[in-house]
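User: two proteins, same treatment. go.

Assistant:
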Amino acid sequence: MKISIAIPAHFASTRLPRKLLLDLAGHPLLQHTWKRASALPGVEEVVILADHEEILDTAKKFGATVWMTDVRCCSGTARIASVAERFRGDFILNVQGDEPFIDAKLLADMRTHAQDFGGDILTAAYRISTEADLENPNRVKVVLGQERQALYFSRSPIPFLRGVEKKCWLTQHTFWAHIGLYGYTKNFLRKLPDLPRGVLAEAEKLEQLQFLEAGHRIHVLEATQPTRGIDTLEDLERARRYLAEDFAKGEV
């Protein structure tokens, strides 16, 4: 199976305007994500999907393959689906543009698993270890079946442990937090425009529930840690400090 990587690059970020173009260690944030994804061997191509001329021009300047897509696409998945036929790969990995520290091992695991899992959608999750993560609505939780298929996603802590004090939940059960890294077959992406939105997806504002409601199976790989995406100015400053420390150690 041939595999492509798509990096949807949305310009109009609400919490951190123009974040993909902001400086991180002397380069645009987006360039770090692209460089990390491009280091993965065994893929056909790495393509940035732009929705704004500034994204397009910046990506071209640092040497990326970049395609302009419709600004009206409502999600990264929809953006990929809108140009699915242009990809050389039969399976497309979706790496978010604001993930400059995406785990190389997790990407490699996704690439390897795409060859033989036989489904339509791959994603990842990590084991929750803190109450803060468990209660944080921005950390999407996922319940897994016996074959590591996703049963449900929610912004609430799930499952509910009846008869157990909430402060003890993490000692009594393994809770999983979703990581927004996806892989899709091109066949699934062709079907996406015709999928009904779904009442659960609308209620939780989670696109992956749309896929489950429509009957698609989502297989979940285990990640060893959460990703360090950039959503706020604080995240960006933390990333700058992190890279500065690595430069000081000679690790970058």
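Protein 2:
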Amino acid sequence: MIDKATIRAAFDQAAESYDAAAVLQREVVDRMLDKLAIMQLAPQRVLDAGCGTGYAGPLLLQRFPEAQLIEFDLAPTMLRVASSRHPAGAQRLLARIKGKKTPWQVCGDIETLPLASASVDCIWSSLALQWCETPDRAFAEALRVLRPGGLLLFSTLGPNTLHELRTAFASVDGHAHVNRFIDMHDLGDALGRAGFAAPVMEMENLVMTYDSVREVLADLKGIGAHSVRDGRRAGLMGKSAWRAMEANYERFRGDGVLPATYEVIYGHAWKSDSGSAKTLPDGRQVIEFRKKT
């Protein structure tokens, strides 16, 4: 089971260090923006579900200058950092005088959104769904708060993520040092179960490179990405276990660097005007899967 209190504490602690380590997270946001750019959408209200330190916020407002942005996150300290990206004080007042909408911020869990039904036109969620036990509740909540014709666009991590680190730890002890991630096909099925229409799923592997295993782990700590499932190690590793893990990871070294692979899954789907997904005559729903090479 995923411990949400542990997740909140980890991200609160990492809020100040997050941006320095979040290279991959910014890259994924930029790629999602490219996908959003080709979609015909003029939302009145956009929800950034799992906004973190708010990198996407100003970019979403640039894409939809007339929209009301809601920045939503589990960790209150993340929201405080996110607020620094937007006008404050006199600049905020001037923006309001000019008719520009300033972002709202809400702290909560994406599996139990404290928002009214049919209250937003677009839900954007970048690398947040992996912190849910299953996607079903989050997708059900997304469908509930979307208005008919609304869009859900998200990214999350797939099972191949950090496979090098998982392999390096596997022979050292029986503890869960790397979180488990949900397969693209299971995510697509969950969208269908929730009632979304025309789901499209895409996947690509992005590889970060490092000089040492310590740098890999430092980046993970910097973004608050600890193992939060049952079976994680309660105490520190001994020196011999640590050396064994490092030696295992070194087997992946190539061209002088150590890789850290992230399987990034992108998905989008619509809430149909009728409120339910269109299906084939036999009850099946068509889901489009794409794998980048």
